[in-house]
Write a structure and sequence with these properties.
Helix content is 39%, strand content 25%. It is built from five helices and eight strands, in the order αααββββααββββ. Strand 3 and strand 4 form a beta hairpin. The N and C termini lie far apart (78 Å). 18% of the residues are buried.
């Protein structure tokens, strides 16, 4: 009888401990779900467009107020630099940089979203030869195998980005007047 009582006490203690552990595990699971939901909220798209479409709708001559209207939300202006940034999500944003004579519209685009299996990037040497010859955007598209993603605008040029399947990124600046690529670099 004494052994039976000890077994019952042990079983009861076991059940209580398992219940407490179960409650703790469920609480941890719920906490992890809340963290995941909160993290997911920061990657939600904000405004009227994703970053790739947003830059297409903004002109270099637009004011901050005009860009606010185009994008559908207000940008944040840095007190230090004076640049205004519109965070579309946690990995993509538009920045307006004010220069002395002109402005620069710059899109920061998560390269994972624009990887393209059709893009074949040239070697550094081949790229330099293309620049020396004076390659146009259309010739770059033909050489690289795909259209570039518009990533910047100034009053005198536009910038495009290509990302190959390995995540290698090429940025190229095309002069508005000549239509030629003036600068290209790997990042």
């Amino acid at each position: 009888m004494k052994n039976k009582s000890v077994v019952i006490v042990i079983v009861v203690i076991f059940i209580v401990v398992m219940s407490i552990l179960g409650i703790l595990v469920l609480g941890e699971k719920e906490n992890n779900q809340n963290i995941a939901q909160n993290t997911g909220e920061s990657t939600e798209k904000k405004g009227n467009y994703d970053v790739i479409e947003a830059i297409k709708h903004i002109e270099v001559t637009n004011t901050v107020e005009e860009i606010n209207k185009v994008l559908g939300f207000e940008g944040e202006t840095s007190e230090f630099s004076g640049d205004t940034t519109w965070k579309i999500d946690s990995k993509n944003w538009i920045t307006l940089k004010k220069g002395v004579d002109s402005q620069i519209i710059q899109a920061t685009i998560d390269k994972e979203t624009i990887k393209n299996d059709n893009v074949t990037l040239p070697s550094q040497k081949e790229l330099q030869e293309l620049l020396n010859k004076g390659i146009t955007y259309e010739e770059l598209v033909e050489k690289l195998g795909a259209e570039g993603i518009l990533s910047s605008k100034t009053s005198t040029s536009v910038g495009y980005t290509w990302v190959d399947k390995n995540g290698q990124r090429l940025g190229a600046t095309i002069n508005n007047e000549s239509g030629k690529c003036t600068v290209a670099s790997y990042r």
